[in-house]
Amino acid sequence: MRKLSNKWLSHQNVTKQTLGALCKSNWILGIFIFALLLIAVGLYFHCADDVESMDGLAAVGVTLLFGCVCFVVPKLNYIFSLRRQEIRITWTQIVFLVSFGIWIATIVSLIGITHMPNGNIIIAIGGSVLSWIFQDTIKSVAAFFYLRANGLLRIGDWIQVPAQQIDGVVKTISLTTVTIENWDTTTSAFPIYILHSEHFKNNQKMWTGKTYGRQMLKTFTLDTGWIHPLSEEDCERLKKNLNIDSSFKDKFLKSKKLNAEVFRLYIYYWLMNHPHVSQEPRLIVRWLQQTQEGMPLQIYAYIIDCTLAPFEWQQSQIIEHFLKALSWFDLQLFQTPSGYDTSNSNINMVENRADYRKNQNDYATLS
């Protein structure tokens, strides 16, 4: 039976997959058959002789049938998630929800609560209590259909939920729960209503190259003490060393222009000609509001290579070229002074410069 179950589960036909899930466990298959027999017997006697004792059998049969649905749906949902069969995932959850509703309606009808004194009040109170207990589940069900109907969540999507520190790929989706494989190889499972009530980002379109690229946003704070006008010697040196169009050199490399201004224009033109940087939707190299540390220069660009390793590689190369070009223009990044900077500054706190090299004789003395 187990071999036949695995064969049917691997089939593309939904009916055979359902039978395979039922046959996965012999006792579940037996319960399913027994439930069908109970329902058939209960309905027969109820319709023929109106025997109230058969209502109990019908209630037991519906309960067992719903239990089988609870067993089969997760099995099918797991298979559909592996194959990314989005429509089938939605339908399995609809079947589960409908079967639950039928079970509740049948139980209420067969027990005859509506015919009891104050039966409607009992149903209202019971419904209120259950709604309070399962409020997260109800919100998750509503969020599931909202997200699926609007195409906001699919298997394999890379999503980020900053408030929950979730950042990874969607592995499974059920009526109430989403399972994520994070980039650090851990797994997170959380109620699906979180994606409806809180902000989350779906990066899938960008990741699969359906946008202009992946955003690079880096800010570098330049030390204002190094900003000065270019001299004639500086211009001649830059014209020889800069590997950029001659039109840029003729237009911008002029004496008395600030080195910071020419540096910003150089970085912009260099990025414009970079094969891995997109000029759409925007490419900006801009100054931000001055701070106590210096003048922040920000690069706002989109790298065409969107997957993790190529993106980080290209971003690192751009940053390294930025740092290299700083020295060409006699600029320097701001850095909070360390103990080494303080002891070797122009304001000497001690007579001799600090020596940070380890003295082997000191170790010999200690030993």
TrEMBL record:
Pfam name, any one: MS_channel_2nd
SUPFAM superfamilies per the UniProt record, alphabetical: Sm-like ribonucleoproteins
The organism of origin for this protein: Segatella hominis
GO-annotated biological processes: cellular response to osmotic stress
Tree of life domain: Bacteria
Domain spans labelled Mechanosensitive ion channel MscS: 137-202
Keyword Transmembrane helix recorded: yes
Gene Ontology cellular component annotations, sorted alphabetically: plasma membrane
Keywords: Membrane, Transmembrane, Transmembrane helix
Name used for this protein in its record: Mechanosensitive ion channel
GO molecular function: mechanosensitive monoatomic ion channel activity
The UniProt record lists the keyword Ion transport: no
Membrane-traversing stretches: 26-45, 57-73, 94-115
